[in-house]
Structure formats: structure tokens, C-alpha cells
Amino acid sequence: MNKKKILIFGSSGFIGSNLINKISKKKYTIIKVNRNKFLSSNLKKRSNLFKKCDFVFHLANQNNEQAANSNPLKDYKNNINLTLKILETIKNLTSKPYLIYPSTVSLYKSSKLIRKENSKKSIISIYNTHKFFNEIYIKLYYKKYKINYIILRISNVYGFNKKNNRGLLQNLIFSNLKNKNVTLFNKGVQYRDYIYIDDVIDAFLKILINPQKGIFNLCSGKSYKFVEIIKIIRNILKEKYKTFSQSKIVFKNNNEDLFNRNFIGSPLLFKKKYSWKNKTNLRKGIIKVIDKIKV
User: Strand, coil or helix: what is 163?
Assistant: First the structure.
């Protein structure tokens, strides 16, 4: 049995490195692709790299809202330009691989109602704009060149990473552990869906077994207010670790749409297509992160 060939852009990132650790080396040949080298190489070199490839994981996007807004041109190069070069490389291949692209649930219009794949969108940042246009490009290349794709609109991914720079949730955990003050905007009552990294990787592995084209929400299906998350963290510290957080919450007003979004989403379509289940609830995931921080 021949091994399937997988190209991974962003192999050193949080999601990419976790994916590589879980992929079976017996079943798959993994090629780590450097984004900058790929962007500077010619079409012939890129085509040779993609030859006889079964899957392409496009995980090299810049995923920071503030960074995208502060430097749109750099974000364009990292996100839009890379996507187009990947698509241009794939379109002329005889055997076309599946392109797996991680988009974002932040494309949806802010709401406290459940968001499904056909729900209304509202583009309110450079980051969202580039994710949205990447989706359009991918769908267009499918229509014109029959490029297979799976777009995953992923909610906030969390899990331990040594740099402690993976979004607000890990910051909340770390701050409560170290008794540092926490800043929340507008009373911290915005809803967010957090999905643990192992559940995301499990979803990717399901795709490798039986890929099915489409756009899917990939989220836990359970959203929490930021103030609720802090209560969960503090209860865990108190009950499991016998620690009482001295961290104070500082509330600030901010009228920007970016800081007032709500998301409550449904992963039901992906669950049905891939027989996938979110196994790690928020409490369990937070405990896993704290255990690794404490080691």
C-alpha cells in the first residue's frame, strides 16, 4: 500500500506542529513547506513539489486580528498571495489534491443566535477580509479548475504552547495563575466558542480518511461569556489545585465592532459528514492547559 502524500504549510505553527505529531508516519509521507521559499520559487519547482500529492494543509496564514489591521500589505502577502500561488500550482496538475483551508467563524455577523454555514456574514476587519477573499478564490478555482477543497470555519483554538501567546483564553488562565490583572472590554459579556487543539487535529485526521468537499463550521458548539470563563478558571484553581486567584478584572469601554462580537455556532454539518465529536469540554481543556503550565 502506497503512502499518501501530504504537504503542510505552517508546519512549525501551533496547529501545524500538533497535526504533524498526530499523523501516522506509516500511512502518510509528510512534506513541510516553507512559505517564503514557496512564494519565491518558480512554477516548475512548485509543481514538482505538489506532484502526486493527496492533501495540502494551508495552515501558514497570519492569524492575529491586530497584526492584520496594523499591516494590511504584509497580511495580504502572507494570506492572499500565498493562497493564489497554491491554487495556481494545483490547477495544472493532472491529479489534484484536496486543499484544506482554515477559515474563521468571525466571518459571521455577530449574534447570540446559532450561526450555521449559510448564516449572514459581516466583514469588519482586514483579517476577516483576507479570510473571506481566500474562500472566494478557493470556490472560484473549484468552479473553473475542479480543485477539491475543504474550508473549515474554525472557532477559537486553544491549548498549551510554550510562548503563551495563543489568544485570550490562555492569557486568562496564565493571568489567574500568576495573580495578574485581566482587562475585559464592555463588562466581558461577549460570547465566544473555544475548541481544544486535540479536537481540531482529530477533525483533520477524519478528513484524511474520507475527504468530502464543502464548507464546515468547526467549533465546540458551546459558547461562554468571558466573565463565565474566568469563573470556570477560578473554580478549577480552587477545587483542583487549592489555589485562590488574586487576579483582578479591569473593565474598559470599547465601541469597536471587533471587540463586541458574539458567536454561538453549530458544528452539526461537520459532525454528520465526518462522524466527528468534540471530546474536550472547556473545563477539561483548561485543566489540561494548567497541568502543562505547572510542569
Answer: coil
